[in-house]
């Protein structure tokens, strides 16, 4: 029989172990004395063993009473003291041992449940290997400053956040993300402190000090979480307020009706409410531990309980539902310029620009393997655009107003500007040799894992999802419709977000998810705040009760499922334990269960409810994965789609330009596109169907889980073959309008289904990948 309320954790564990040793040894010595016929000695030894336990219970109960906190340990105190007063010394010794043993068992359970969180604190690096000129010097990690060049040896923990200076680094990020497989980081990529070097040594350029790094922030959060008081009193004492008077009334009634105080003692012995004071905290801490193992830091047991009750979810848009940074989403061209050539010319000029969009354009061009040229005669107007000469061609890139100075505008440009406003995209127009030749569209794309995360959150029990954003209504509605959220609140300042959450709290339990400094007030106001700690601001992580240490939104759905199961198991343990105790109390009141037997029976109930509470540690939200794609294979599959990006751009560009292409160019353009489809795209789809899908299906489980995607493959092949036959049957000379329309209809259909198909596959690959 145990209690969660007593001395602080460190000293309390020692006291509990001492009490177990004393009560166990005196119980054994007393039994030996009784066996030898020394009844008086046995009783005296048992009293000695029970007394310190009674004192410990009394001190804990007094402390709680001074805090005006109704204590349930009073029943255990009455049982031990009552047995001593009535001369039932053996019962007193057994109850004392069971109580001390329950405490020790609870200590063990909590220690096991906190293992993942404590292991994180033990990983903190103490020193770093810093280059000093050509020498390597070991310095305390506190002396590392941004800009220092460090060497991270094999098997060492990365001491600070930084950029990989070597060609590549292979890292074990499981302590932060929960992913079991190593992750490869290439030169220039960011590495977070706290991860383990799983391969050869590599150089690291420090970008933060140790105190400001990712790992230090996580350590502070973990320490805060471990010091937080679990909400066992709230959940347990609600039932204890009913259970305690029932036990006292039943004990008093048994004594009054029979005149036998031993029956009252027996009732109190089996009434000690260990299921209340053990099962709840063990389940709660186990749930926190399980969340930590999946890269979700829950700062306290109360937060986990709040998460389990949550049914209304608020999302900030930028950086939470979307990627939070500009990415090239489309290349729009006019006339017959190749989309890749337009991108190459634009990126070549943008190499010298410091504009935030320039980096995205240059990065995308390099990902496509385009050879960029050095610009000359560059003229830049800050915030508007720039112009330069690339391989003898004069290129202007920037806003519509800026580029219009170098080339006349057109109706096409005006239509594109309207589309950009609707979709919330940024666009840079490109003019080549005085002709407006196209535009590059950039936007904040929906995160790859967002659709799956929203589906899993609904599956986990969320009833209402609201998107909060500072964007204007048209853009916000466009994103909201794509995601399928229940409500979109646009034009939201930080104060507006706060008001929306306060209003929702009147009728539901709210959860707010955000990543920026401006989200901190809303995170603090919600019943549960969730911060995207892997990429978000420190202010949001401090304000939130939950921090996602891994940059995957679907982990929130896992944490929600774990929280709900934790609460359910805790309730099961409480109700089952109380039910068994009530039955035992009735038997004791009727005289069928003596105090010693009752004490042993009660300890069996304790063990059962604790073992049931520990089931939380085996929680596998949404089923156990039968297999995972390793990081390298996931990256390869994503790279294959990226390499096919120019083919998709070419399909759309060809469909757009067919009506205006000159007669001399139209046959060549269609033939080239047909060759791309037959030699590059369709073989890729056949290989996926033949080789990739059979490997993925056993990992996904179920009956033919990829059937919809296989059906899409067939439609892609059908449209590809249809286009091939259409190009073979083209009449010579000018194409009739109906032929052009048929070709456009086929190409637009192929473009739409390919983009949807790629998005579905990438979502599956991301969900199955071990890479964070």
Strand order of the largest sheet: 10-22-21-20-11-18-19
Query: How many strand segments?
Result: 22
- The overall pLDDT average reads 80
Q: Report the uncertain regions.
A: 1-10, 228-233
| Derived structural class | alpha+beta
The separation of the N and C termini measures 43 Å
Separate helix tally:
28
What is the 3D form? elongated
Estimate the strand proportion: 5-15%
Number of domains: 5
In percent, how helical is the residue content? 55-70%
Account of the 3D structure:
Helices cover 58% and strands 14% of the residues. It starts with 8 loop residues before the first helix and ends with a helix. The longest helix has 38 residues, at 663-700. It has 28 helices and 22 strands. It folds into five domains: 9-113 and 231-289 and 571-618, no CATH class; 125-225, Calcium-transporting ATPase, cytoplasmic transduction domain A, CATH 2.70.150.10; 301-323 and 446-544, HAD superfamily/HAD-like (Rossmann fold, 3-Layer(aba) Sandwich), CATH 3.40.50.1000; 327-443, Calcium-transporting ATPase, cytoplasmic domain N (3-Layer(aba) Sandwich), CATH 3.40.1110; 631-768. It is α+β, with helices and mostly antiparallel strands and 772 residues long. The protein is elongated. Mean pLDDT is 80; it is low at 1-10 and 228-233. A seven-stranded mixed sheet has the order 10-22-21-20-11-18-19, sandwiched between helices. Strands 2-1-3-9-4-7 form a six-stranded antiparallel sheet, with no helix packed on it. Helix 2 (39-66) crosses helix 4 and helix 3 (74-85) packs antiparallel against helix 9 (261-271).
